[in-house]
Design brief:
Elements (H helix, E strand, L loop, with lengths): L1 E2 L22 E10 L1 H7 L13 E2 L3 E8 L11 E4 L2 E3 L5 H4 L11 E4 L3 E2 L6 E4 L4 E3 L11 H18 L9 E4 L3 H12 L4 E5 L4 H9 L3 E4 L11 E4 L4 H10 L5 E4 L6 H4 L3 H10 L3 E4 L5 H12 L3 H7 E6 L15 E5 L16
Parallel strand pairs: 7-8, 11-12, 11-14, 12-13, 14-15, 15-16, 17-18
Antiparallel strand pairs: 1-3, 2-4, 2-9, 2-18, 4-5, 5-10, 6-7
Length: 358
């Protein structure tokens, strides 16, 4: 499953050869592949970069695979379910990359599987270096495709936990904007911390209502102006410039606002920087962005998913498509949360079919 980055309409299924042993000592059979907004943007020609010297990029970074072979010197074994850390350092590592914190690269010398300069996992088999492999508990199964997006959220919450300690008496609700996969996972990790959590979505729907309620969050349909709370923590997961402006104003004094979305339009994202400066300074608010994740965050993500209600995990996956219908995964449907491409050959025989729907 490959695309020519920068050119819309080039997404296609193509035959692939056996993976090059130079790519890594661990051989993995792909089982399930989650599709996210980043994949759709790359397919639309808006993002992505192929490996150096190549024209095409194999898509896919939210993977669950089964190890086919692994070196005896590693702690990995054949038959083990795994996922893979998306970001990888290139060349001489910076201080953070040398310490294993690839998500905090200081010099921009990195690649990202299926996104930026390195092939992804939308193929029957792939090879990978042992240090990038993360074991996935067997009980997560196909829901292991949520580990990668949950790792991004786990990193954000790790930083939020640290930053909120700057105000010892800080209390108040958590607001998560956007009820897609990232927003729902952010709500899960919020309620797991015991916070009163509000999940704001423009369209809502019965399925999202059920998912929010299942983890103890309150789904609010509408805009930030419809809320009657002043949140102490905001996790912004829509990438909408207008919503970013609104939540910064709506947040309580001393609040922490974390941005996980990326604005698609610079015009929409424009704002009065002087006014924003005054709002942040006069109310002691803290605004920060977060992207990618390290192994620590993958481990935290797995722990959070294992502590989630099993039915909730199942219902996060709203479509499951066999490989031959993989192109349909890039056409987002209104009730979509997470769409999964099934490489096992045991998925739905006719597509598109809905899994986990309400």
């Amino acid at each position: 499953m490959s695309v020519r980055p920068g050119r819309a309409g080039t997404l296609r299924l193509t035959p692939t050869s056996a993976p090059d042993p130079a790519e890594g000592a661990v051989l993995v059979d792909t089982l399930w592949l989650g599709i996210c907004g980043t994949d759709r943007e790359i397919a639309a020609g808006a993002l992505g970069r192929p490996p150096t010297g190549e024209d095409d990029l194999v898509l896919g970074h939210e993977v669950v695979g089964r190890i086919a072979e692994a070196p005896e010197s590693s702690e990995l074994t054949a038959g083990q379910l795994v996922t893979v850390i998306v970001r990888r350092p290139v060349g001489t590592p910076c201080r953070n990359c040398a310490a294993g914190n690839w998500d905090l690269c200081m010099d921009g010398h990195f690649t990202e599987h299926g996104i930026f300069g390195r092939h992804g996992f939308g193929r029957r088999q792939f090879r990978i270096e042992p240090d990038a492999v993360v074991p996935v508990p067997a009980d997560l199964g196909m829901c292991g495709v949520l580990v990668e997006p949950a790792s991004v959220v786990a990193k954000a919450w790790q930083h939020i936990d640290h930053l909120t300690r700057r105000v010892p008496a800080a209390t108040g609700a958590v607001l998560v904007t956007g009820a897609g996969p990232i927003g729902l996972l952010a709500a899960l990790l919020s309620t797991q911390r015991g916070h009163e959590t509000y999940l704001l979505d423009r369209t809502g729907g019965e399925h999202r209502q059920h998912l929010a309620a299942a983890v103890g969050a309150h789904l609010v349909v509408g805009s930030v102006d419809d809320l009657d709370i002043s949140p102490a923590v905001v996790v912004e997961a829509t990438g909408s410039g207008s919503i970013v402006r609104s939540v910064v104003h709506a947040a309580a004094p001393n609040a922490v606002v974390c941005l996980l979305g990326v604005c698609a339009s610079s015009a929409e994202a424009s704002w009065d920087v002087g006014l924003m400066n005054n709002v942040l300074v006069h109310s002691n608010k803290l605004l920060f962005g977060s992207v990618s994740a390290s192994r620590t965050h993958y481990d935290l993500a797995i722990r959070a998913l294992q502590n989630a209600p099993p039915e909730w995990l199942d219902r996060m996956i709203t479509r499951r498509l066999p490989v031959r219908h993989a192109m349909a995964a890039f056409d987002k449907e209104p009730e979509d949360i997470k769409t999964v491409i099934d490489f096992t050959g045991h998925g739905p025989s006719a597509a598109p079919e809905t899994a986990g729907a309400s």
